[in-house]
Amino acid sequence: MQNLLLAMDDTAGTGSAEVEPALAVPFSEALADYADDTDQILTSVNVDYIRAETSSTSPWQDEAGVHMSVSVDSLLHVVRAISHSPPHTPQCGRPPPGTSRPTSRRPPAAPGRTR
Question: What's this model's pTM, rounded to 2 decimal places?
Answer without folding.
Answer: 0.65
